[in-house]
Amino acid sequence: MLQQFSYGRPPKYWVLKGFHGFRLPELxxxxxxxxxxxxxxxxxxxxxxRTMMMADILDGIVGPVDLQAGAKMHLELTRASINNTMTHPxxxxxxxxxxxxxxxxxxxxxxxxxxxDFCGRPLTVGAEAAMRVYLANNRGDRxxxxxxxxxxxxxxGEDLDALHEEFRPFRERFGVEIEKRD
Length: 182
Known about the structure:
The chain has helices at 2-6, 24-30, 43-62, 67-87, 101-106, 108-119, 125-137, 151-154, 160-166, 168-174; strands at residues 36-40, 96-100.
């Protein structure tokens, strides 16, 4: 698709959101000069957040959803993703810059600056200023606060301490701390 978007246009860099770690070989095969900024977050929060995000989306399309079934499914999807991250040989590829989600949230421009350095590209004063203006004028909660709770996981019989222990190797590898929310 990107090749179609680029056809007949001057060369430019593409910036994409929504990377899937299961497709690393295909990404780097198709785009050998690609670089990747990979955010890592507490998997317990990921499972709870993605459950509620998808429930909100599906509610608008098909109506109310079964949150317990969704929580079970998204916990299993999170487990599969974490397993892939921990075992896939391309996770250590030099084209990937790993960043903790909490570091990105704390200093988005700082992380972007580091990523530009990582890619060997200059971050111009104008580009940084435009990013700052965008962030100031487009707060993440401008359309309402997204709310979720790890109670979604305890409601399906999961023990949060056991989940934290299950995901401990991932957290240690990527320096991800347990997030306390609720």
